[in-house]
Amino acid sequence: MKIVTLYSFKGGAGRTVCTANLIPLLAKKMGATNKTPMLVIDMDIDSAGLTHILEQYPKFEDSDWVSTNFIIKGGSEIYLYNKKYERVFFNEDYYMPNEVNNKNELIASSASIMRDWGIPSRVVELFKDINIRKSVLEGFHKMMLRESTVGTKKKIIDELSTADDQRRLLKKIAYLLPAYGMVDISDHFVETEGGSIKFIGLKQGITDKIVLGDVQSKLTELILKCENANFCGIVIDSASGNQAIANAIHRIDNNILVYCMRLTKQFRDGTRLRLLDFINKAKPEKDAHCDSNVILLPIAVPTVSYKGNPYLSKLQAFAEYDIKRMCKIISEEASGKNAKVKIHDDFVAMGIPEVESFKWQEEILYMVPNRSTDQEEALKRYAAVAEKIKCI
C-alpha cells in the first residue's frame, strides 16, 4: 500500500491544488476500486483547503468528525472519536446488510425507515422516484441505520420535510450525509466504480487538543488498519511548516513525500532548510521509520519567455540553477548522514506549469472539458508525477 504525502514548507505553494489534481490520477495508477479503495485525508487543519476544493465542506461543516480526531479500536473497524461518543466510519459489513444489495431494495429500505420516522409521504415518494447515484443512497441508508449518532430525528425530519423538489432533496441529503467521518467521492470524479475514493475532511480552523497528542501512533495505526482493510493507498494533504501533524507525517515509514514549492527565494531557502532538518533527524540506527522518498516539485512555473527583459530572465535562470544546486546539496547530505531518505529531482527542470485559470478558480483538470493549452500541459505534468509515484 502506497502512502503519498504532499507537503510544503509554507502555505501558498499550491500544494492543495496539486493534491486535488493528483487524486484521480493516482486512483487509476493504484487501481482503486470499491473493494480496494484509496483513502484521501485533508490534514491541513488551518484551512481545510482540500475539503473545499473537493466540494465536501458542507458534509463536515457541522460535524465533529475530523481527521485530527481519529483513533483505532480492535477488530476490523476504524473509528473516529470526540468527547461525546465514538462512531465507526469504516465497517462495510455492519453498515450495509447483505439483504440490501441492489438499488431497488436500498430505496425501499430507506423509504420504509423514513415512513417509520414520520416523514411526510410526499417526501418519501419523491425520494423513491429521483434518479441519484447508488453511493448517495447507500450513504443515506447508513445514516438512517445509525440515526442515534447522527443527530436527533427531529432535525433530520425537519430538513427533509422542507424539500419540495428533486434538487432541494438532493441538497438536503448531501448535507445530512456529513455525519460520517469518511465519505465517498462521487464516481464521476474518476472513471472507476463508485466508492473507489474515500475521503476524510475537516472543518475550517479546527482547534483540537488531540492534535498535540500522540498523532504519530494514531497515523501508524490508521495506516495499518487500512492495509488490513485492503486499501490500495493513502494520499494526505499535509499541514505545512513545523506543525505537529506535519512533523508526524515526516516520520511515517515508507512514505513518499512530495515537497511542493514555488521558485521564489523564500521557498527555495525554506524548503532546503526543512529538508536538511528532516535528513539530519533521520537516523536509521535509531528510527526505522525514516525510510522515505522525497520528490521535489516546483509548482506554478512561468511558461512565458523573459528574453525581452534581462532582469526577469536572469532571476528565472538563477532560480532554476539554485534548485538544481539545492538538490545536489541535499542528496550529498543524505548520503553523508547515511539517512534512509532518497531525493528525486525528476521534476526540478520542469515542474507544474502555471495555469492562468487557477488565478481565479482552482480546478481538477482531469474533469475540465475543452482544456486550454496551459491546462493540458499542466495535466500532462500531473500525470508524470502520478507515474513517478507509481514507480517508486
What does this structure look like?
With 392 residues, the chain is α/β, with parallel strands linked by helices. It contains 15 helices and 12 strands. Strand 3 and strand 4 (78-81) form a beta hairpin. Helix 1 packs across helix 15, helix 5 runs antiparallel to helix 6 (121-129) and helix 5 (103-117) runs parallel beside helix 7.
Shape: globular
- Per CATH, what is the topology of the largest domain? Rossmann fold
Q: Proportion of β residues?
A: 15-25%
Q: CATH H-level name of the largest domain... which superfamily?
A: P-loop containing nucleotide triphosphate hydrolases
CATH class of the largest domain: Alpha Beta
Q: What is the count of DSSP helices, taking H or I runs of 4+ residues?
A: 15
User: What's the main sheet like?
Assistant: 9 strands, mixed
**Average of the residue pLDDT scores:** 76
In total, the number of strands is 12
Q: What is the CATH architecture term of the largest domain?
A: 3-Layer(aba) Sandwich
Low-confidence stretches: 73-77, 82-100, 146-152, 208-212
Cα(first) to Cα(last) distance is: 12 Å
